[in-house]
Amino acid sequence: MANDSVINVCFHGIGTPQRELEPGEDRYWISEELFGAVLDEIRDWPGLRISFDDSNTSDVGIGLPALLRRGLTADFFVLAGRLDSPGSLGPEEVRLLHRSGMTVGTHGMRHIPWRGLDPAAADEELVTARERLTEVVGADVSTAACPLGRYDRTLLARMRRLGYTRVFTSDRRPARALQWLQPRYTVRNDDTPGSLRTEALQGPSPMSRLKLETVGVIKRLR
């Protein structure tokens, strides 16, 4: 890998869900045992950056203690519209993440794709949600993760105008440290520490790499 390469690894739910899951979401919930094993695998990877999406209560109940025991930090992308909802983080838990040295970013308001939103909905997702989280944390919230990994050039241009300093996606490939758009490897329940290591460190075949890069280009330009 290049010296400025970053490997973003993203988690969602850990353990038993405490809320009703969306269709297909169960694939992104992993056992506490797998979570610990993956953390132990990746903790010494070069250029590692960890993140959590969806603001599940497991972020604080399981994720945060495991990170602190290993001396790791992470970005937590919070859904402002789910604050204090069953199974989701509340304001005090979000503040705890911030006090513990973690970065709090926005995942929007309602966990809907941001691509193709009308102006009012886009304002709610990209502006109002961010303002609410900034108020909760008491510090600027300037990073975001695109729900469901969906984006296009119109969305990215809007987010640049709004002053977001870094935007995270679900494109499974390495990033560059100073890149504004940060692809991530999302951990799924059929992953293992070994499979993640093979994919992220050894990389895909040349043909698969070309396909991944092409998909990213299409998303950015469409």
UniProtKB/TrEMBL annotation:
Its subcellular locations are: Secreted
Q: Which UniProt keywords apply?
A: Signal
**What is this protein identified as?**
Peptidoglycan/xylan/chitin deacetylase (PgdA/CDA1 family)
**Protein's GO biological process:** carbohydrate metabolic process
A Pfam entry, by short name: Polysacc_deac_1
* Entry superkingdom: Bacteria
NodB homology domain residues: 46-222
**Its principal location?**
secreted
Which terms does the record give in the GO molecular function aspect? hydrolase activity, acting on carbon-nitrogen (but not peptide) bonds
Annotated GO CC locations: extracellular region
